[in-house]
Amino acid sequence: MYRLRVKDVLKERGVTQSWLARNTKVNESMIRRMVHDPNYMPSAATLAQVAKALHVPMEELLEEIPDPPPPFLQQESSEQKQ
Prior knowledge:
Helices cover 57% and strands 7% of the residues. It is mainly alpha-helical. The longest helix has 11 residues, at 44-54. The two termini are 30 Å apart.
């Protein structure tokens, strides 16, 4: 599972959402969604535009987070604790 880091990268670069929208020609509402919803996954083309404008590799805009265990494993671990 991946999480967007657009908010973090904007802060590191010291630029605003409006600046990013102007420099990528990506709709400001989509930029806002990428900033406020880290689980949102825009298209690869959109991520590429954002990465190019921010002068970072696309990978820097994503953070891999561990997937939750499947439900059957969650049940086993809770039974083992008892």
